[in-house]
Amino acid sequence: MFKTNNVTSRIFERQIRTPAPGTSVHSARRFYENLVPSFTIYDVECPDHSFFKFTDDGQYFVCFSRNRQDLIVYRPTWLSFSCKGEDCDNNQELPPQVKRFESFFTQLYVKPLASCNELICKDFFLYMESNQFGIFATSTAQIQDARGTDGAILGVPSFEKITIHLFRLEDGFKLDEKVFHNDCVNLTHNMGAFLYDDLLAVVSLRYQTIHILQIRDSGNLVDVQAIGAYCREDDELFINSSSQLAGNRGDLVDNGTNHDQPNSNNSFLSGIKQRLLSFIFREIWSEETDQTQRVQCLKKKFYFHFQDYVDLVILKASRNTDQLPAFFAVYNMETTEIVAFYQNAADELYLLFERFCDHFHATSINSMYMNFISSHSNNIHALEQLKSMKNKATSISQFVKKMLSSLPLNCQSMSPSPYFDQSLFRFDEKLISATNRPRQSTDHPIRFNSRRQGDILKFKIKTVE
């Protein structure tokens, strides 16, 4: 740890001392205590775009046109102007160019993204750091009176076309795309998609299917697996062959003697639903050792609620969790088994979330930035803040529900900026936080105080003049 807060002394100390193993990044991030913004520029002449977000490495600034048809990408030019002294608010030496957007960003390209009947999903963007690939989405308008089709569940809206686009951000070249027809994928804030290394999971709400795609280094989107109606690659082949065999046997039966055979198209639950029911049955079965008590327990906890379990659908847990029962299931893709099943107010799941929050983010092991996000499982200050909220809660059950409502965590929903590192700075999370969400502006400046330097003010962000 640095003995002084002087930046020159810190640089000299970095030259003569080696940080402890595994702490080099944390040591480097402490320099941001000296590198802080000190001046706010108002009334900047900006292009009429919808500004979205920076990539995690800060190399690209992603924007969309106002008509949600074009992709516009800028590159920051970084430090362009400076002022003398510490009181920059009263400094009048900055040139007129400082109020121009082009003084800070260089436009790389403008590329058409959506077709004539599609619009860009302006809240969706995933960044593949290793290849500098960008994943975008477009969709047609929502169909109000969608007709039910085979495999689709009722009550879920439908979109005639949803397209996932893969772009190379360096030059804006479109590499590949994946189209979903008459489907529904919740793309708001990346809810319906998750990127881990080179695997992209897309959740179809309408057909209750998790599509696993692989992003090749060549820039191709390859279908790997679809988890839903079938869990293994040969499940569909096995069921179809069994149906054909049953049909051939039915031809040998005289007419009128085989009317009670179930319809093969409607007699099966989806593969993932069968895995869930099997897990619940085994868990209840193992609760009792006495055979009589076991049967009674199954009647009370399983068969009585059987239809409720059958009616469960894959949905973002934060929707209507107060009015409707919600559960979390952990699925093993390799063994095709459900390995855990929790209600949305389970204390056991909350304790896991509190102690191992970083595991719920599941960031890529190759990420240089996302592995340094402050959470209550790796930062003592964040943990103290969480415990303070828990102690102030009037109902522990409602507090647990509120905390677990964020699960499963949206992919790339947190900013790795060092200014959100709670071991370096203290700030009001009601006004600003590492979570990528639009927030209302405040009349008062947002203060960032130093954690290690006696809680002194390091800088402040003014949202209005």
UniProtKB/TrEMBL annotation:
InterPro entries hit by this protein: De-etiolated_protein_1_Det1 (IPR019138)
GO cellular component: cullin-RING ubiquitin ligase complex; nucleus
Coiled coil regions, renumbered to chain: none
GO biological process, one term: positive regulation of proteasomal ubiquitin-dependent protein catabolic process
A GO molecular function held by the record: ubiquitin protein ligase binding
Name of the featured protein: Light-mediated development protein DET1
Organism of origin: Gossypium mustelinum
